[in-house]
Design a protein that fits this description.
Largest sheet: 8 strands, antiparallel
Number of strands: 48
CATH superfamily of the largest domain: Glycosidases
Number of domains: 3
Distance between the termini: 74 Å
Bound molecules: alpha-D-glucopyranose
Shape: globular
Helix content: 10-25%
């Protein structure tokens, strides 16, 4: 095996927007994307095209650098990169001279054949968060991970890799934070001092460049903002996708789907979405409908619509090999499938049997795929669930030599799912006119947030998975994925009624709230667990619908700043040691105001840690001082959820569907505090892209405890709010009460408490 270590600077020059430093064995290209984002690309193949699936920004043209005999220094207003010339080593500092992160002096960057690795110094108190959908602890120190999108059947709390790859992490130490994004789609490795005697961390990839973006903003929230500026932010999801979603593998006929939908309405359990898993298709052929059981899709969907339900249908990438099947014939004829090097189409087996796989890396294939959704959009489908796109084939092992265009499988496996989601999003967006499609994908890479929501694949019906699910959702949020869900109840196995009740109560506070189950499992709808449990599940769903004005405003914030909806406490309380403790690492903020403490179904009390500030229990208004641990009650009907003092939470009376107009009253809940707080309240029509043209309703709401006022600043935007009246609901004030309704207008409204 050949071994090369990055050696000394031989020459330096600027070429367009890159500073190029040559050594005997490689070239380091440095560019600046914004004051807080510096890219370092160390490559042995500078002749290769510089391309990225993730990054949507260009570097600036100015690279201010200075040179001495020992060093090259690049300074921005936010970050200083000092490059030691011999050997070439990279060190990042704050502008006031504090060391943030640097190469290990001895080992820096090196290659073993094509494998490239970066060895980085470790601080004694350093912690690591991120990498998206990774099992294990919130603090990744002491763990190692591989990025290699995998159909992770029966995964557990420590399984790695899972379905998605997000080679982006955040390091925190000595009151500092930084981000590191290795934009390399090959199989990649991250070892956070798991096997290094605490001497260093190391990360790298089987091939490709050591191509990383270093983020130097001072807080985790700002690093996420910069990372999502670089790789994109999600757009506003359709409002209906934030309602309750009912799925199963599979409801076997249109009639069965309709019966379940009808039952939600009969029992007055709010819900918005029904799903069709693979059995709606004819012989699992993508873009077909089963001729017997789903014979009249347009009529079926019209009936669902009449019940105020939307339909989401599954699509997998595998195209069944069958002459006469349109997608197969066209794909073969036009050469749209992945091939062996000799040009033969690659064949693998998935649900439909023997299949070929579209080459989503080609624009013409993506367009072809996107246009085929007409078979689904025409009868009225608005949500598209992309599954098995790791890509999964039975036994997992797609041969290395399989080609997607000019690239081999190992180079692009980690982005296959994202490119499928991209084709689905682009195609359905065109087909649906001005309506927002809802796309959900199982496999993903950095940047997927631009096209799709994700869920955490085939989890299991047990308490460990309930807790793991919370960590996965929170971790995905750090990497820009705000619209995330888990299979509520656990995909495999059968949950106990208690687990189902508990998991639903957590579902209320999960960005995507979907109940899903494996085939042949017991039925999972809310009414399957007896009347008392049904009432509890119903309460959780009703609470979700009450919170929708708050949740939608929080999604708006995500679309603007990349701040996720479910926020690990590490985002805001980064340097508080206790939040990383195993007992507390699952806790998260749901938006800015609510702290949620997941609890297993067999415990009716739990310990929680409330960080800095003052807190109220949501269900009782009991008050708690922050920076303390508490043992609190956690009965099945009352998941421990706390409100940060000073919070403003816009709510509404629940409706049966997001398509119901409701009673027109915006309930502004205020919890007393001692500092001025504010909230950006946001609304739009929930379905179209008109908000991009200014058709939204947005206003700042401020609570001032000193002057005892709540002020709604004049509303911006052309959209007329759905609400006609506003009611202030006060918590923790002397006169705790619900006050009279007043008219809700676009003008400034001041309310005296
Ligand atoms: C995969 C998916 C699961 C789906 C099943 C059948 O296992 O992860 O959600 O129900 O395939 O399509």
């Amino acid at each position: 095996m050949q071994f090369h270590s990055l050696s000394s600077l031989q020459s330096i020059h600027q070429q367009n927007n890159k500073l190029i430093i040559k050594t005997a064995e490689a070239e380091a290209q440095v560019s600046i994307y914004s004051p807080g984002i510096i890219r370092v690309n160390i490559t042995q193949h500078p002749e290769n095209k510089d391309e990225s699936f993730a990054v949507i920004r260009e570097p600036v043209t100015e690279i201010p650098y200075q040179e001495t005999e020992q060093e090259v220094t690049i300074s921005t207003t936010a970050l200083v990169l000092r490059i030691n010339k011999s050997p070439l080593r990279f060190s990042f500092y704050t502008t006031d001279g504090k060391l943030i992160s640097r190469d290990d002096e001895r080992f820096g960057t090196n290659w073993q054949n094509s494998r490239v690795t970066n060895y980085r110094e470790l601080r004694p108190d350093e912690k690591f968060i991120g990498l998206g959908e990774k099992a294990g602890n919130l603090n990744r120190r002491g763990s190692q991970y591989v990025n290699w999108n995998t159909d992770a059947v029966d995964y557990g709390p420590k399984t790695d890799p899972l379905y998605e790859s997000f080679p982006f992490f955040i390091g925190v130490h000595s009151q500092l934070a930084y981000g590191y994004f290795l934009d390399n789609t090959h199989k990649s490795y991250f070892d956070f001092a798991a096997s290094t005697d605490d001497q260093f961390i190391w990360l790298g990839a089987d091939d490709g460049d050591l191509n990383y973006y270093f983020f130097g903003a001072p807080t985790v929230a700002e690093i996420i903002k910069d990372y999502t500026w670089l790789t994109g932010r999600m757009e506003m999801p359709p409002l209906w996708s934030l309602g309750y979603q009912q799925c199963r593998w599979s409801y076997m006929s249109a009639q069965e789907v309709l019966d379940v939908a009808q039952k939600f309405r009969d029992l007055n359990i709010p819900a918005d979405v029904m799903y069709c898993d693979i059995d709606y298709m004819q012989d699992f052929k993508i873009f077909t409908w089963n001729q017997e059981t789903f014979a009249q899709p347009a009529e079926f969907i019209a009936k669902l619509k009449a019940l105020n339900f939307k339909l989401v249908t599954i699509v997998d990438p595998g195209i069944k090999i069958e002459k006469g099947y349109q997608q197969y014939d066209e794909g073969v004829e036009r050469g749209y499938f992945a091939t062996y090097p000799n040009g033969e189409n690659y064949t693998g087996e998935v649900w439909p049997g023997r299949c070929h796989f579209p080459d989503f890396f080609r624009e013409d294939v993506r367009e072809w795929w996107g246009a085929a959704f007409q078979a689904l959009t025409e009868p009225g489908v608005e949500g598209f669930w992309n599954d098995m796109n790791e890509p999964a084939v039975w036994n997992q092992n797609i041969p290395w030599m399989v080609k997607f265009g000019d690239k081999f499988m190992p180079e692009v496996r980690n982005v296959y799912g994202m490119e499928m989601a991209r084709a689905t999003y682009d195609g359905t967006r065109k087909l649906l006119g001005n309506k927002r499609p809802f796309v959900l994908t199982r496999a993903a890479y950095c940047g997927t947030q631009r096209y799709s929501a994700v869920w955490t694949g085939d989890n299991t019906a047990n308490d460990d998975h309930l807790l793991l699910g919370a960590r996965l959702v929170n971790s995905l949020g750090i990497t820009g994925m705000a619209m995330v869900g888990v299979d509520i109840g656990g995909f495999s196995g059968n949950p106990t009624p208690e687990l189902m009740v508990r998991w639903n109560s957590l579902g209320t506070y999960t960005p995507m709230y979907r109940n899903h189950a494996i085939r042949f499992s017991e039925y999972r709808e809310p009414w399957q667990y007896g009347t008392d449990n049904m009432e509890l599940i119903k309460k959780s769903i009703e609470q979700r619908y009450r919170l929708l004005p708050y949740l939608y405003s929080t999604f708006h914030e995500s679309s603007q700043s990349g701040m996720p909806v479910c926020r690990t406490l590490a985002i805001t309380y980064t340097h508080d040691e206790l939040i990383y403790h195993e007992d507390y690492q699952n806790q998260f903020m749901f938006g800015d105001a609510l702290l949620v403490a997941p609890v297993i179904s067999t415990s009716l009390t739990t310990t929680v840690y409330l960080p800095q500030g003052n807190w109220y229990r949501l269900s009782s208004n009991e008050t708690f001082e922050g920076q303390k641990e508490y043992t609190v009650s956690a009965p099945l009907h009352d998941l421990p959820v706390f409100v940060k003092a000073g919070s403003i939470i816009p709510m509404q009376n629940f409706t049966q569907s997001t398509q119901d107009n409701g009673d027109g009253v915006l309930q502004l809940n205020i919890w007393n505090g001692d500092a001025i707080t504010s909230l950006a309240y946001y609304e739009d029509d929930g379905v179209s892209y008109d908000y991009e043209q200014g058709n939204y309703h947005k206003r700042t709401i401020t609570f001032n405890p000193l002057s005892k006022t709540v002020k709604l600043l004049k509303a911006e935007g052309d959209y007329n709010s759905r609400f006609r009246q506003v009611q202030f609901i006060l918590h923790g004030f002397e006169n705790q009460s619900e006050l009279d309704l007043i008219n809700y207008t676009n003008e400034e409204i001041t309310f005296q408490i």
